[in-house]
Every structure is written in C-alpha cells, then in structure tokens.
Amino acid sequence: MSNDTLTPAPTAAAPRAAPAMPDGHSMTVRDLHAHYGDTHAIKGVSMGYAANQVTAMIGPSGCGKSTLLRCLNRMHEEIPGARAEGTVLLDETDIYARGIDVVAVRRAIGMVFQRANPFPTMSVFDNVAAGLRLNGVKGVDLHERVEVSLRGAGLWDEVKDRLGRPGIGLSGGQQQRLCIARAIAVRPRVVLMDEPCSALDPIATLKVEELIAALKRDFTIVIVTHNMQQAARVSDTTAFFYLGELVEHAPTDAIFSNPGDPRTEEYVTGKFG
Amino acid sequence: MSAALDALAPVAGRRRLTDRAMRALLWAGTLVALVPLVLVLWFLLQKGLGALSVDFFTTDPTGNFLGDPGGVRSAILGTLEIVALASAIGIPIGVGVALYLVEYGGQRWFAQAVRYFVDVMTGVPSIVFGLFVYIVLVVSGIGGSFAGWKGSVALALLMLPVVTRSAEVVLALVPDHLREAALALGAPRWKVILRIVLPTALPGLVTASLLAVARAMGETAPLLFTSAIVMGRSWDLGGRMNSLPVQIYNDVSSPNDQIVARAWGAALTLVALILLITLVARFIARRSRLA
Questions:
Q1: Would residue A187 count as lying in a domain?
Q2: Interval A124-141: pLDDT, tens
Q3: Nearest CA of chain B to the CA of A59: how many Å?
Q4: Which sequence spans correspond to the domains of chain B?
Q5: CATH number of the structural domain B56-287
Q6: Between β-strands A82-90 and A93-94, what pairing exists: parallel, antiparallel or unpaired?
Q7: What part of A 178-207 touches B (C-beta under 8 Å)?
Q8: B180 and A121 in contact by Cβ < 8 A?
Q9: Tens-digit pLDDT profile for residues B197-253
Q10: What ipTM did this prediction achieve?
Q11: Which residue on chain A is closest to B193 by alpha carbon?
Q12: For residue A34, what are the β-bridge partners?
C-alpha cells in the first residue's frame, strides 16, 4: 500500500527512459450526495475518472463541481456542518467505507487549491518536503524527492538557487507550481485540482496547463475549472454539472462540438453561466 | 453655472464651521486623556530618578525603620521569579485552551461555555484570585504558609483568561487554507496544529503572552496574601518572597521619607520593566507574518 513503491515522477524537462506506470489508478463515484447543513449541494452523482486521464468538471457557480472534488479526498467533511453519503471508489476501495483512515485517503489522493497556499513559515525546500515530513515518511532521500518533485512541477530551474528562501517569496504562478510539487512529492495516485489557474495570469496559466498534460503520465488528474477553453485544452473527458446534478460526461471533443444535452450546449456556447 | 461645477464650489460656511468645531472637540478630548498619563510619568521620573543608585539595585531592603533602609534587589528578583513561574503555568494552559477553542471546539456548546467562563474570569478582580489562593493554599498550610510559588499560582490564574482570549484571536487568524493544504497532504490533525498552525501563529502568541506577563507583573493584590513580603534576602520560591508591587505598597505608607523615596524608585523600576516587555512584544508583533 505504500506510495513509495511507485516509480519516481518524471522530469518535465528531460524525456523519461522508464515506461509510464503500467497500471494507473481510477476513481468511481456512485450515487453521491453532499450537504452543507440544510443545503443539498450534490444530488446523486455517479461517474468515473479514468486512470492516467485528465477529467475536467465544468459548470456554472454553485453547480457542485468543487464540492464533488472535495468529496473525492474527503476534504468536504472538514467544513463544519458538511457531510457526504454514497460510494467513492479509489480503484476497488471505498474511501467512505467504515474503518478507512481519512488520513490515508488524503495521502493517496492529493489536492491543489484555487489559491496558491504555500506554508508561510517554510522555505521552498521545506514546502515541498512538508508532505513527507508531516506524514512521518522515513527512508526517503528528501533532497532527491524534492528535486524530482520540483522538476515534475517545472519549477526546478527557477528555484534551484533559492531553495532556502521563503516559499511565499515566489511569484503567484511559481507558488501554484510549488503547491503542485508539494502535492506530488508524497506520490499520490490521483491529483485533484480546484480551479488551479483562476488566480494566475495567462503565461502562468499556460505553464500549469502544460504541466497538467505532463503529469497525467503518472497521475490520474481531476480538474475543476470555470474556464471552458481550459477544459477544452487540457482534458480528455469533460463532465458538465448543473444545480448539483451531473448533466453529461463525455469525451471533451464531444462536449464542446456535439453535446448531448441542450443545457450543456447552452452553457458551452456561453448562453448562460 | 453648470451642476458639475457647483459640486466643485467651496465648502459651504456652515459645513466648514461644523468641521472645525468637531476637530477642536476631538483634539481637546485627546489632550484631556493624555494629561493623567503625562502627569504619572512626570511624577514617576521626578520622584523616582532621585532614588535610583547602584546600591538601590544591589542591596536588599533591611527592614530597619531608622538608618539605611536598603535597596530593592530582592523585590526585583522576587518579581522576576514569581512572574516567570506564573508564566510557566499560565501561558501553556492558556494557549492550550485557545488551541482547543479554535481547532476542536468551534461553535460546540462546551466551547461556547468555556469562552463564557474565560470572559467571566477576565472580569474577576485580582484581589479575588489572591484571596482564593490564600484560602486554598495558604490557610490550608500546603507547603508551609506564605510562599513565592503561591503568588505565582494567583498570578497564573490572573493571566490565564488574558492569554486564552488573545491566543484564540491569534490562532483564528491563521488562514484556513493552510490547514486545508496540510490536511490534503495527508497530515493528521495534531501534526497540522503542531507543525503548521503553531509556527505560523508563533509571533502573535509570543506577543499575547508578553502582554499578559506585563499585566501580571504590576499586580499587587494577588501577592499580598500569598507570597507576602519579607525584608532581607529572599530568593526561594518555596518561602515568603518580596516583590516590587508589594514592596511599593508597603513602603509608600511609611512615615520615613527615605522609605517613601524607595517606593518611588521601585515604581519607576517596575514601569520600566513593563515598558521593556511591551516594547519587545510590539517588536515581535511587527515582525509577525499575520499582523
């Protein structure tokens, strides 16, 4: 079960010699309901997230896409009054089953947030190493893992000379890639991204999008975005949500060129949302 | 003239008059508030500076009514020792309670009850803490009668609500997205608190603690019936102990002018000590990442 048995993450810069991970990890959601107090935010969603693919979740504000994302690694329940019911499988394991350690779930399913949130008391190096240290992982060459993770996040060349400087001293785009490096340093199976580019300028956005394309060789990626062009650019399949329900989940080409539901068509053509 | 230019016309006479009157009123209020503060400092310096000398800091009070009354060395040492022990008791418990309130309690009824009682405790007069410890620890004769450490217990009780309330504010300032980031990395909650929340809040917690220390340092009432007063040398927290506030309280009622002068000197010393701590607290607060 240890994540350390997985092969090292690739470097974004250099082409990797080793083949991509033979068996990636998929996720499946069955009849998931999520609540905030009396608000029913997700109303019985069922869908799958294919291994080593990028799945985008789009929809207007309040459609439940971020809530669903937070249910995928049980961060939803950290909000006071929030609860979720249903089945969420990581491969064959139900992460909501009784006896499942929520801490282990989050180690296996990493998360990148809307706002870059490096730890303000820590250096660049310590930020990337934070996950391993907080998890008490032993027997890992920290320096090697930090370098591999920073390379994986396409940040190594920019920060290799200032690993000891505070992480919050980096630019916004660099901070977000630092957070991605921090998330992949613990070797999760799935990486969840909650509007990772919404606070970034176009150039930084482009870098993160290129990164997502590179990362899917090693991780299954789920991204929530309010930017439809971004969904079209980075994802393999796209799911459209409306009012807490899944309207349609199909290959990204189909969603944007030939949607099956009139609501999807109206949304992707900009008629509402 | 067009409407747009009317808006740029000089301010009407009445509005300007009201403005002047209100400004003058606020200025006057500020001055009145400053008068007692300035007077206190002026009297302290005028009467206290004369009492200061090398002997003042290096000799213990003799207790002699006539002849050399001695300095305040034992009072300074006593204050430092008693307050240090009080801090060692009060600050960890106070920060612990605040951690419970912010990280675990939230809006639960028990946390709300704790908050309420902490607020009540803030309003309890300091002499009540002194009496409480007097009855529980001194009258009962636990570990002898009057003792420095019993004064520390009374001061710790006084500090506890101050530390708790200000530490709670500081901990609540730690952004939730940092806790989420750490939780999403798969860190257990206790490690998130220990490695992320506490280090991030540290400068603020130090400030909160130092302000509570400064507050406790000037208290007389909790020490009067707990560590009492002693002339001569007293460095042992296990026995009666001297302290600056009690020394001042004692000296100022003396008919001997030399001893009254010692009270002024001791008061100046105490204010200087507290000012020093407050300055350190402000310095640390300014370097805080959260402020």
A1: yes
A2: 999 999 988 888 888 888
A3: 23
A4: 3-51, 56-287
A5: 1.10.3720.10
A6: antiparallel
A7: 179, 182-183, 186
A8: no
A9: 999 999 899 989 998 999 999 888 888 888 877 776 777 888 888 889 998 998 888
A10: 0.83
A11: A134
A12: A42, A84
